Amino acid sequence: MPDTPFTSSPPILPPRRVPLAEAMREGWLEIWYQPKIDLRRKCLAGAEALARIHHPQDGLPWRESFLPMLDTAEVARLARHALETALGDWTDFAAAGFNLKLAVNLPARTLGDVPIADIVAERRPQADDWPGLILEVNEGEIVREVALVRTLAPALKAAGVTISLDDFGAGYSSFASLRDLPFDALKIDAVFVKDCAVDPDNAAICQTAIDLAHRFGGVAVAEGVESMADLQALVVMGCDFGQGVMIAPAMPKARLLGLLRERAHAARAEPQSETPAGESRAVA
User: Fold this and answer.
1) pLDDT tens per residue across span 58-89
2) Which of 5, 120, 143, 186 lies 20 to 30 Å (CA to CA) from residue 58?
3) pLDDT tens digits, one per residue of 217-257
4) Global pTM?
5) Whole-angstrom Cα distance, residue 229 to residue 227?
6) Residue 104 lies in a domain
7) Is residue 57, in this structure, part of any structural domain at all?
8) Rounded Cα–Cα distance for residues 163 and 132 (Å)
9) CB within 8 A of 245, min separation 6: which ones?
């Protein structure tokens, strides 16, 4: 029964801050995945890798409880770990029959500190159908590193890495910055996706971001999708991909694999399926 003004609940206290070195040493650091769906084809398209610390006593702290504590060396260490884990996990998804394009969210400052192209070239799956890796970098951060990104872009592309501008719209980047950045996707900030079906201002911002992505030869991704109405509005606007708790929350790899297998089994059991051969249905 939900709480009412006549009932009370103990306060939810934030988890204690866990040092990254301790979490990695003790095996508490986990890489979870949040599914991303293709809004046009209505099927699973990929997933974003997200760092989580699963403390044995405190449970699962959100990432904000440890990321602000990290110094430059620790950020680089976490970035390397996330990259290597995602590259290895793709093989597990592929072995189960799901060829997902995985994305790793990295701070812009790691681009110059971590040899991303070298790591991917060394650790990438050798399968012919590997779709590559997406680097999601905050828009507000990456516009300050335009020269660095342009320098690194050829090596990243050669290694199969593309760039997505994360939280687009919150950083107020100029059109000149977009012109100069070698991005393949704009990820619309959740604050504008929320209520885009009924809020004309948010709808206008989402539509503008979608049109910009397409004009620059990229795709548009809506993050933070929380309602079916917003999802349907984004489809009408021409958005390419969606991600959010309404579709599926972030979850451990084993949990995601289990859900994918369940959906695949259910699809095979249907006498007539509308899902094209070789495609996976959305997780939720």
Assistant:
1) 665 555 555 556 778 888 889 999 999 999 99
2) 5
3) 999 999 999 999 999 999 999 999 999 999 999 999 999 99
4) 0.84
5) 5
6) yes
7) yes
8) 11
9) 224, 225, 226
